[in-house]
Amino acid sequence: xxxxxxxxxxxxxxxxxxxxxxxxxxxxxxxxxxxxxxxxxxxxxxxxxxxxxxxxxxxxxxxxxxxxxxxxxxxxxxxxxxxxxxxxxxxxxxxxxxxxxx
Length: 102
Prior knowledge:
Layout (H helix, E strand, L loop, with lengths): L1 H18 L6 H21 L5 H23 L4 H23 L1
Helix pairs in contact: 1-4, 2-3
């Protein structure tokens, strides 16, 4: 009975955590903005021979990659990803219950 309870709880938590998604907030992007500014400033300070446009491009590229990662964290998972995650959680719960029973 204990294994079934743990399995059901893990499955329920997995479903709830995966089915709830939200849009990124502006505060989540502040890190990307600070990173871009630091990257641009660092490049301009240390690279006298580099064109300013190269520093700007590096900073912009890093900013866009950072934003993409944040947006990807908020995208809904595909059914196959949800099933794989739920299966992992069930196996973890079963293993934990088995260890506790021993």
